[in-house]
Amino acid sequence: MAGHGDGATRRDFLYIALGGMGAVGGLAAAWPFVSQMNPSKDVLALSSIEVDISGIEVGQSIKASWRGKPVFIRHRTPEEVAEARAVPLDDLPDPQPDQERVKAGRDEWLIMVGVCTHFGCIPLGQQGEYGGWFCPCHGSHYDTSGRIRKGPAPRNLDVPHYEFLDDNTVKIG
Amino acid sequence: MALFQGNNPIVKWVEYRLPIFSFIDAHLIDYPAPKNLNYWYNFGSIAGIMLVLQIVTGVVLAMHYTPHADLAFDSVEHIMRDVNYGWLLRYMHANGASFFFIAVYIHLFRGLYYGSYKSPRELLWWMGIIILLLMMASAFMGYVLPWGQMSFWGATVITNLFSALPWIGEPIVTWLWGGFAVDNPTLNRFYSLHYLLPFVIFGVVFLHLWALHHRKSNNPLGIDIKGPQDTIPFHPYYTVKDVLGLAVFGILFSLVLFFAPNALGEVDNYIKADPLVTPEHIVPEWYFLPFYAILRAIPHKLLGVIAMFGSILVLFILPWLDTSRVRSATFRPVYKLLFWVFVVDCIVLGYIGANPPQGAFLIWGRICTAIYFLFFIPVLPLVGWFERPKPLPTSIAEAVLAKSGGGMPEGAAAAPEGRG
Predict the structure, then answer these.
(1) Are strands A49-52 and A169-172 parallel, antiparallel or unpaired?
(2) How far apart are CA B115 and CA B123, in angstroms?
(3) For A137, which of B163, B175, B282 is closest by C-beta distance?
(4) Among the four B190, B287, B343, B394, which has the fewest Cβ within 10 Å?
(5) Average pLDDT, chain B
């Protein structure tokens, strides 16, 4: 055949062009089949909730359901806040001061996603070695600020995006 | 005389167009199998029959089950209480999964003992590992379908394994869930995939058998077939042997099925899934316990996940880790000892996996995890070099004749190389 010196032929070029276009087209065609598994629009639409916190006394907590997950809303006692703030940051596997985990001026309200950062179980409140939360699945201990202190979990309990609409209402998400 | 060689005109007509009769003859009737296969070789066919049983019971259960987070739990109770023989079909399916794993694990350890993974059967071994992985995925997703507490929290913990991956972990988990937690979209896709995967397994089983019949079965002596004197036809010898083994296996299955159908399950799964409450004590089904123990033995999330998957994936390189040229453990005194250490190690890991990771369980979990991996690297490659194997018989036929007495009264000569 009519060679080009380097041995490549017109047919070689056509094979590569066909293969390349086939690969691009195949990936493009595969994308809808992958993407369909991501959250659908109705699931995404349920992205925020408003919770009335007026009935939660000091030392009480509630669980609200947000995006299918529990959100812990705890009205902390002054002792719990003091305990959380007395811990040196060097003692924490995931160092973060308590002040960063609450809204300034509302330091008694601790709001976090109640899902263990290890494998997703729901920790039990006011248990464990640090008076915070304890995950029964694989034994992670969290303190009164929801920070990981002991056990296999890698991170502190997540704090969701939230804001106080007024003194009695918090909007999560 | 094989059926297809006869003069039946219909058989001849079909055979000319689709050689199905000669195919059956070549692979199930006149197929030459080693003379010396023992009862440990029954578990491949038993596993195949359990796969068929799971597909048949699963297809009929799907006629009564409703894959929706609000209705699934009740539809399973509907199967148990209202559907004719629904209790039987569901218990067959649930316990059938356990017995499928029993058969496959024995089959796997048999391959490990007799060196069935070695050349030229590496791809045959790979197909087997792929089948095991697909079985695990199917079993996990099937366990989610009743939407009980263990279903829900098992699904949560196992899908969260992927969150250990840096950067891509969280998006992958959201993608798997189809939401921000395990919920109805998760249940729906698991149902779809749980229905699909057994047929994928069926396809890989076909490749597994293709490779098997291409290079023929290994045998307890681990030496090659040298001629017709080393083989017997599959039918009637091994069809009958397989049927007898299946009958015994079926009796054991029936004992559990009819007298202790919930013995292998968790009571918590009779409580409907509650996304806001985790059960006190989460354990997977028994067939996952050794891997769960390995996961929990390592106090680091990502490394624990890597170790757990690695404990199965290491089997892929086993044919190259084992440097010994001798296949069967019968002739490998050191490997034989190590094999039994490994078996005990796996059982102990299973026991540890069922218990909370505290105190002695945590320490022993770590010791057994270390033994598990040390068995593969570096012990197996080293043993292959240092071990002095016993002399191999020259042929299967010679060993079989020597074992059966060679003229002496039957049973007089207990073969010293027999399995102890």
Answers:
(1) antiparallel
(2) 14
(3) B282
(4) B394
(5) 93
Are the C-beta atoms of B205 and B29 separated by less than 8 Å?
A: no
Q: Look at the block and give the residue holding tokens 């985990």.
A: A101
Q: Which residue of B has its CA nearest to A153?
A: B301
Q: How far apart are CA B359 and CA A49, in angstroms?
A: 42
Which residues, including other chains, have CB under 8 Å from residue A4's CB and lie 6 or more apart?
Answer: none
Helix B169-177 vs helix B184-215: crossing angle, to nearest 10: 100
pLDDT of residue B4: 64
Which chain A residues are within 8 Å of B157, Cβ to Cβ?
Answer: 119-121, 137
Chain B CB contacts of A34 below 8 Å: 175
Residue B416 has pLDDT above 60, yes or no: no
pLDDT tier at B403 (50, 70, 90 boundaries)?
A: confident
Strand A124-125 relative to strand A109-113, pairing = unpaired
Is A63's CB within 8 Å of B299's CB?
A: no
Q: How far is A123 from chain B (nearest CA, A)?
A: 8
Closest CA to B268 of B282, B288, B285, B253: B282
* Alpha-carbon span B195 to B142, nearest angstrom: 9
User: Is A75 marked active-site?
Assistant: no
Model confidence at B417, pLDDT cuts 50, 70, 90, reads: very low
Task: Give the integer Cα–Cα distance in Å for B238 and A161.
Answer: 66
Which DSSP category does B311 fall into? H
Which residues have C-beta within 8 Å of that of residue B215, sequence separation ≥ 6? B120, B121, B124
Mean of per-residue pLDDT scores for chain A: 90
Residues in B 224-283 with any Cβ partner in A closer than 8 A: 275-282
Q: Is the pLDDT of residue B38 over 50?
A: yes
Considering B12, B27, B64, B213, which one is annotated as catalytic?
A: B213
Kindly indicate the confidence band of residue B415, based on its pLDDT and cuts at 50, 70 and 90: very low
pLDDT, one tens digit per residue, over B362-382 is 999 999 999 999 999 999 999
Predicted confidence at residue B356, as pLDDT, reads 83
Which runs of consecutive H residues, i.e. helices, occur in A1-40?
Answer: 10-35
